[in-house]
Amino acid sequence: MQKKRKIFTTNKTDPGKIIWQKAYVTAGAAHGHALLAVLCELGMKAVGAAIFHHDPIYDSNTKDSDALAQVIRDYGNVSNYNVCDKQDFELVNMLYNLRPDILLARHGGMTLWGAKFGIPSLLIGDEHFSMGYEGLVRYGERIIETIENDEFVKNLSQHTINPYTKWWMTIYQ
After folding, report:
1. Is residue 86 left, alpha or beta, with left meaning phi > 0 and alpha meaning psi from -120 to 50?
2. Measured between alpha carbons, how far is 70 from 67 in angstroms, rounded to an integer?
3. Could you give the angle at which helices 67-75 and 29-41 cross, rounded to 10 degrees?
4. How far is residue 39's CA from residue 146's CA, in Å, rounded to a whole number?
């Protein structure tokens, strides 16, 4: 906790704005797992993830580079973890039921769904954005900025028609 406070006080950022915020991640395997680790380091709670694939043997021909196993060893189990290939219907259901404070996504088409539900959504295309101490600070600042600037997504959610039925939206409650 002291380390986190130092990160944010160094940058004149109030740690209370980010600590314990709920986040949902959608990205490819390595990037998605790295995002989960970044969230945990920042003191946030990952309430779920839609990761596009998970196969360390296919990715790197060895079990030694199992990024998900490393995240679980370091930070604990990831609830609502789904392996899916950009299946909008699954993501929509999870966002509707989990209602995270922010959605972190690697692909732009996925951030749209968070915005439609009034969830501030951060598109991170650069997998190197979180490298090192400065990268962690940059992520913290971008996340706070995204959560605080939610006027557009709140307004959008009031004028968006959801194409999915009430049955589908409540099936996993």
Report:
1. left
2. 5
3. 10
4. 14
Strands 45-51 and 121-123: unpaired
Q: E-strand spans in 72-141?
A: 81-83, 102-105, 121-123
pLDDT digits (tens, 9 = 90+) for 88-138: 888 899 999 999 999 999 887 889 999 999 999 999 877 777 778 888 888
* pLDDT tens digit sequence for 47-99: 999 988 776 666 667 777 777 888 888 888 888 988 876 678 888 999 999 99
Q: Are the CB atoms for 139 and 13 separated by under 8 Å?
A: no
- At 70, list the tokens: 């490393």
CA distance 5 to 62: 37
